[in-house]
Structure formats: C-alpha cells, structure tokens
C-alpha cells in the first residue's frame, strides 16, 4: 500500500513538471523586443501628432500575457508626462479570459491585437494629444508593460525614441550688419559768463574777471588743437542777453557780444572764418526758467507761468514779471539771476582720425570713447575672429559707447540673441532702425520669450521685405508644424 502511494506521488510529480513547464517559461522575463522606425512628432493646430512604425518583434505575446506598448511624452525634468493610446496585445488564453470579463477590455487602446500572429507584428501608429507648453522640450518614450494571468507584472521597461520630441526650429538672427566707416563727431562745450560794460559789446579779456571765463574756451581749444588725432570741423559761438529792456535792444547786445567772442578766437588762435558759425542769440528765457524752478520765491508758480508762456511777446512777458507781487520777486531775480543770463556759449566740434588696428585695440580697453564706432569692428575682426566670446564683447562695447548708433545696437542685439540674453537684446533693439534685419531679430527675441504668435508677425514682415534670414526662419518654423 505504501509502495503504491509513493508510485502515485512520482507519477503526479512527472505530470506536473510536464504540464507546468510552459508556465515557467512565461513566468521568466520574456524576450519581448519592440522597435519604432519612421518616427515623427509634429505640432499642428494645437495638437501634438505622433507617428511611427511599431515592430513588436518575433515574439508578439505569450498565451497567458497581456502586452501594452504605450507612447509617452515626458517633460525634460521628469515631473510631467502625457500618455498616448497604447498598443495592446493579448495572448490566446488572456484574450479568452477577457472575453468572459468584458469590463476589463481596453476601450481606449489604439489597437488591441490577439494572439502571436505574424500579421500582428507591425503596427502603423498615429495619434494626437493636446499641446501644452511643457511639451516643447519633452522626450518621446515607449513604455512597455507585460502582465500575466495571475502573477502580476512580468515586465516593465521604457526606451527613449526621441530626446527632444517636438522639432525645435533652428532660428537665427540676421547676419551682422556692416558698420559704416564714418567719423563720429565729438564736441566740447562751455558757457562763458563774460562781463561787458553796460549797453556795450566790446570784450575786455583782462577785466571784470573775464580772464577766468575765457580760460574755459582756451582749455577746449587747446584740448583739440594739441591732439594730433583730432581735426576741428566746426566752432559754434552764441551770445545771450538777460530779458530786461526791449527785445530789439537785447538782440543787438547778444549779437554784438557773440561777434566780440568770434574776434577773440580768430585773433588768439588763427582759426579760419570758414570753421566758425556765429549765432546772434536771444534773450535768455530758457536759463531764467530753470533758475526760477530751483529757487524758493514768493509767487513762484505765477512767475513760472509767465516765463513759460512762449506764445506771448517777450516785452509783454517782461512787463508782467515786473508787476508780480508789486515788483519784489522781479527785484530778487534782477540781482541774483539776471547777471548769469548774460553769457556766451562756445562749442568746438571735432573728429578723430582713424587709428591703426593696434592703436584701436589698445584704446578699446583703455579709452573706448576715443574710437569711432566702426573701429570696434576692425579690432574684433583683426584680433578675435576665432574667439566668438571676445568678438561679441567688442560689439557690445561698441553699442554701449555709441547708444544712438542703430547699426551698433542691431549687432549688439544679435550677440545677445545668440547668447540667449533676451533682457539685454530687448534694450539694444529699442535703438535700432526700422528695417527688415531689426524686424527679424525682434521676431527671434519674441520667440525666445515664448511669444510665438507675435514672433511670426515680425518674421513675416521681415520676410516680405526681402530679409533672407527671416525667410529661412519661417521655413524652419514650418518644419515644426505651425
């Protein structure tokens, strides 16, 4: 009896081993290999469209397994993800079981396959999901999960199909603009408060403290004439009178005093008359207005209103000033302000000669204000053609030295856009000319700031005007699917 019992156990063990062997094979990690070719991720009408050809491999699914292959968009930092419909393959036994449990069927699957059939191996996949901004830098992954009938997860794996799933347009700023080879006008200016005898226009250089005032003019002339790099282009001289008395009389005084200073300059410095421009000048209401604004005076607001009334005859304004407050404020102005209104202005305009590249290189570091705008480019191209960082820094220095130069600002904005410095790029673009290259660069700035709709407006405006880079940028954007 005992022998029969042991024989029964041996027979049952053999049968169990033979019967359970396939289940053991399916219990091990299966050799499922999925590949995707002809991958495409496009943005179209607010949808991210994903397409590829999926190859599930020679072994599509074991009889007791369910195999799910799910395309997933995963944010660059891994904190967000969006799953697209899965490709589901059910083994023969699993499919039969699911038929008995319809609530477990995958209604949202892209496609549900049954059995390990050759015709199930290849799946042409195409699906779409609503676009969100975080998807710009997301990767496309293929997530695979395999489950058995009763033993839970058999396989969990993930492979990356595209690191940056959505196509990133290779947008570029317009090419560097040629900075014109022009000599930048420079100037030195001073006000000389020269004292003339009452109602006279004769200048006495050594009386009334005039020597100290004329020294200002002498200093400006010496500065330019003694520097071999400078060439005088123009000298501007004006005369001004204080407003007391008639306008006709004050104009004559201002004109005569401007002429007196002209004669002094030509005598002392042998300056050609062709370099001089003498302006008769006027009553000095401008400086009077600024002086009263800074003072504490009775009836101050009334005085300011009268002085600022430029549409009123000057002699009438003068009469009104005299009448304010019974004449007390006017008396104060006459003593404290009016003497400083009787002045000459002197401005000498000059240019600097073009330096050699080596001289310009030294000045670009030590005294950038001495260079003409285009000389920064000479230094950059001569010494830093193979060093983009140093090259770009010189172009930024050119724009900072000449903030009103539209070409220098355009090129500085280009440097900042290439570096991704949108804040500085925006500042430089404010001082560019209204031209296609600037429009294209403005479009790139807006794109980098995430404002794609407005960026397209500027790209199209520049492209329609013939800017080649804007046209290329639009082609790149079309590849993205916008």
- Name the structural class: alpha+beta
Q: Note poorly predicted spans.
A: 8-12, 14-27
Please state the overall shape, judged from the principal axes of the Cα atoms. elongated
What's the CATH architecture of the largest domain? 2-Layer Sandwich
SSE string, helices as H and strands as E:
HEEEEEHEEEEEHEHEHHHHHEHHHHHHHH
What is the typical, i.e. mean, pLDDT? Answer: 89
Major sheet, described briefly?
Answer: 6 strands, mixed
Measured by DSSP, the beta-strand proportion falls in 15-25%
- Determine and state the CATH class of the largest domain: Alpha Beta
* Rounded Rg: 43 Å
What report would you give on this structure?
The protein has three domains: 135 residues, Sandwich (Immunoglobulin-like), CATH 2.60.40; 165 residues, 60s Ribosomal Protein L30, Chain: A (2-Layer Sandwich), CATH 3.30.1330.60; 109 residues, Serine Threonine Protein Phosphatase 5, Tetratricopeptide repeat (Alpha Horseshoe). Helix content is 44%, strand content 20%. It is built from 17 helices and 13 strands. Strands 3, 4, 5, 6, 8 and 9 form a six-stranded mixed sheet that branches. Strands 10-13-11-12 form a four-stranded mixed sheet. Strands 1-2-7 form a three-stranded antiparallel sheet, with no helix packed on it. The two termini are 84 Å apart.
């Amino acid at each position: 009896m005992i022998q029969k019992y042991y024989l029964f156990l041996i027979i049952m063990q053999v049968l169990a081993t033979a019967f359970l062997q396939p289940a053991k094979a399916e219990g091990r990690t299966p050799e499922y290999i999925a590949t995707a070719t002809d991958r495409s991720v496009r943005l179209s009408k607010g949808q991210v469209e994903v397409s590829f050809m999926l190859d599930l491999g020679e072994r599509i699914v074991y009889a007791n397994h369910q195999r799910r292959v799910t395309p997933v968009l995963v944010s660059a930092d891994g904190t967000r993800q969006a799953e697209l419909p899965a490709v589901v393959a059910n083994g023969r036994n699993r499919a039969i079981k699911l038929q008995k449990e319809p609530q477990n069927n995958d209604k949202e699957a892209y496609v549900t396959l049954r059995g390990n059939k050759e015709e199930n191996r290849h799946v042409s996949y195409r699906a779409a999901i609503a676009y969100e901004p975080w998807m710009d830098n997301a990767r496309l992954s293929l997530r695979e999960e395999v489950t058995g009938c009763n033993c839970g997860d058999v396989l969990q794996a993930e492979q990356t199909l595209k690191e940056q799933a959505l196509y990133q347009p290779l947008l570029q700023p317009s090419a560097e603009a040629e900075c014109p080879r022009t000599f930048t006008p420079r100037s030195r200016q001073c006000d000389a408060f020269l004292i003339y005898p009452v109602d006279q226009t004769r200048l006495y250089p050594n009386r009334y403290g005039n020597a100290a005032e004329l020294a200002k003019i002498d200093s400006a002339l010496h500065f330019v004439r003694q520097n071999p790099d400078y060439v005088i282009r123009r000298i501007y001289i004006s005369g001004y009178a204080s407003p007391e008395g008639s306008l006709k009389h004050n104009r004559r005084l201002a004109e005569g005093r401007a002429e007196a200073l002209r004669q002094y300059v030509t005598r002392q410095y042998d300056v050609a008359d062709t370099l001089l421009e003498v302006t008769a000048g006027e009553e000095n209401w401008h400086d009077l207005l600024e002086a009263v604004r800074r003072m504490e005076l009775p009836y101050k607001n009334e005085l300011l209103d009268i002085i600022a009334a430029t549409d009123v005859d000057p002699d009438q304004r003068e009469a009104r000033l005299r009448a304010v407050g019974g004449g007390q404020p006017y008396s104060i102005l006459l003593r404290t302000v009016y003497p400083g209104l009787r002045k000459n202005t002197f401005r000498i305009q000059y240019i600097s000669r073009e330096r050699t590249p080596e001289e310009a290189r030294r000045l670009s570091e030590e005294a950038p204000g001495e260079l003409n705008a285009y000389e920064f480019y000479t230094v950059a191209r001569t010494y830093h053609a193979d060093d983009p960082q140093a090259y770009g820094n010189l172009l930024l220095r050119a724009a900072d030295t000449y903030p009103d130069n539209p070409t220098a600002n355009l090129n500085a904005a280009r440097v900042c856009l290439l570096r991704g410095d949108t804040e500085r790029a925006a500042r430089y673009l404010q001082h560019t000319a209204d031209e296609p290259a600037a429009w294209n660069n403005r479009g790139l700035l807006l794109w980098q700031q995430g404002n794609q709709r407005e960026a397209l407006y500027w790209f199209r405006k520049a492209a329609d005007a013939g800017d080649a880079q804007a046209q290329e940028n639009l082609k790149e954007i079309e590849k993205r699917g916008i």
